[in-house]
Design brief:
Layout: H1 2-30, H2 46-59, H3 70-84, H4 90-106, H5 110-120, H6 128-144, H7 148-161, H8 167-179, H9 183-199, H10 206-218, H11 222-236, H12 239-251, H13 255-267, H14 274-283, H15 290-302, H16 310-322, H17 326-339, H18 344-355, H19 359-372, H20 378-391, H21 395-405, H22 411-444
Length: 452
């Protein structure tokens, strides 16, 4: 920002000085030396003219290979000021002071430039166009010094004096109010800035729209932010705007459109961070498309955007389970079980095998879960182990797991464990009876020995 202000002000001063010299040359050609008291009409006298010409040459040599002599220029300016300033007419004073501002801006001494600009305003018969340029320059320089109140004061004085509006003044005022956290004041000024630029047939950059959107967000005007973000997407197709669109829908609690906009962001190939991959994948379940969500997470893992840690792999397995893709869920569940320091992932793996009627694998997984420990619900794991062992007709192992679950202090768990233990005993009795009857039948139908 400093360099922008410096360039603007330097252009202003150089143009101003060019006009001064042109005016002075014309006057000098028309009249020779006149008494000092007659030089009050706003022209440069010969002595001042020669002095500022020499200073100009020192600051901006005609030969591009020559280095500017800034120290010499400053010394000459100081001497001219001390020797003649009080006897100069107002036009000469404004010219000399303008050279001082040019010097201070060149060495990036903005505090020094500010003092000179303010001294220019004390000139009684200062030309209106010079006063306007000086006021605007002060607004810019105080902004560069982050003195927002004085920046606003001088910009506003410019508006009070000028018959026309200026886009840079509106922009500077909006920035200053923004820095003071006076956001309601900043908003209409920025809209005026944008309107002037567009009216003049110029293009606004994405940063201009982004600043306005930032104001809408800060003021919690999310409906306006939504409309502007859509416009920005059409004009610039920037990834950040797609992200903002999803965020705005979330703020407006429009979940379907939030997920849809995030999905478009993904389909355009713009998504490249873990959080959004996981968010979109899991959110697809809410749109009754869990398998699509699972595939999104799988892609993120494959592209190494999503880290293959226990939480993320477990999420992938759960998405497949929600999709009823039980067989596909086995591999990520197995990987999660190996990564998990607790037994919870083995518990999930056991449940998957149990649903698939793979009771031996289920029993193995549940036992691994119990061995690792730190289970979120140990009694539930024991009861599922009991069910798996019962399905395998391992009645003793099933009864042992059920009885261990029955040692809980939770009355509901105790009741479930006892009921299941009775079921195990009933099944044991049933199978024992069946086995006995089968044995009796075999004995009954056993063939007689052959007759000799």
């Amino acid at each position: 920002m400093y360099f922008l202000v410096k360039n603007i002000l330097e252009r202003h001063i150089l143009v101003f000085f060019g006009c001064v010299l042109l005016s002075s040359v014309i006057i000098a050609g028309e009249e020779q030396r006149k008494p000092p008291e007659a030089r009050t009409s706003g022209t440069l006298g010969p002595q001042v003219m020669r002095a500022v010409s020499e200073i100009q040459e020192m600051m901006s040599p005609e030969d591009e290979d020559d280095e500017p002599d800034l120290a010499g220029a400053k010394e000459a300016l100081d001497e001219l000021y001390e020797r003649r300033y009080e006897r100069m007419n107002d036009f000469e004073k404004s010219t000399v002071l303008s050279f001082f501002t040019n010097y201070y801006l060149t060495i990036e001494d903005y505090a020094g430039a500010l003092g000179i600009f303010e001294e220019i305003l004390t000139i009684e018969t200062l030309r209106e166009d010079t006063r306007l340029r000086t006021l605007r320059s002060l607004g810019q320089l105080y902004a560069a010094e982050e003195n927002w109140n004085d920046s606003i004061r001088y910009y506003q004085e410019w508006r009070d004096l000028s018959l026309e509006e200026d886009d840079l003044v509106f922009r500077g005022l909006s920035y200053a109010y923004y820095q003071l956290e006076q956001y309601p004041e900043a908003l209409p000024l920025w809209l005026s800035y944008m309107d002037i630029v567009l009216t003049e047939g110029e293009e606004l950059g994405r940063d201009d729209y982004a600043y306005l959107n930032g104001l809408y967000f800060t003021l919690e005007d999310f409906e306006s932010a939504l409309d502007l973000t859509k416009t920005m997407i059409v004009k610039f197709d920037n990834p950040t705007d797609w992200q903002n669109l999803s965020a705005i829908y979330a703020t407006l609690e429009d979940e379907p459109r939030r997920v849809q906009s995030l999905n478009l962001y993904y389909l355009k190939g713009l998504m490249d961070d873990e959080t959004r991959f996981l968010n979109l994948g899991q959110s697809m379940a809410g749109l009754e498309a869990p398998y699509s969500g699972a595939k999104i997470i799988a892609e993120g893992i494959e592209r190494e955007i999503i880290e293959s840690n226990v939480d993320n792999v477990t999420t992938f397995a759960q998405m497949l389970l929600i999709s009823n893709e039980v067989e596909e869920a086995v591999e990520p569940a197995q990987k999660a079980a190996e990564l998990d320091e607790t037994g919870n992932s083995y518990d999930t793996l056991g449940y998957i095998h149990y649903v698939m009627n793979n009771y031996e694998l289920a029993s193995e997984a549940f036992n691994n879960a119990l061995e690792k420990g730190e289970l979120s619900d140990r009694n539930d794991t024991l009861l599922f182990l009991a069910r798996s062992e019962l399905a395998l007709q391992n009645f003793d192992s099933a009864l042992e797991a059920a009885n261990e679950a029955g040692e809980s202090t939770d009355e509901r768990v105790i009741k479930s464990a006892r009921d299941f233990a009775r079921l195990i005993e009933g099944r044991r009795s049933f199978y024992t009876t069946i086995a006995q009857r089968k044995a009796d039948a075999i004995d009954f139908y056993r063939g007689y020995p052959p007759l000799d």
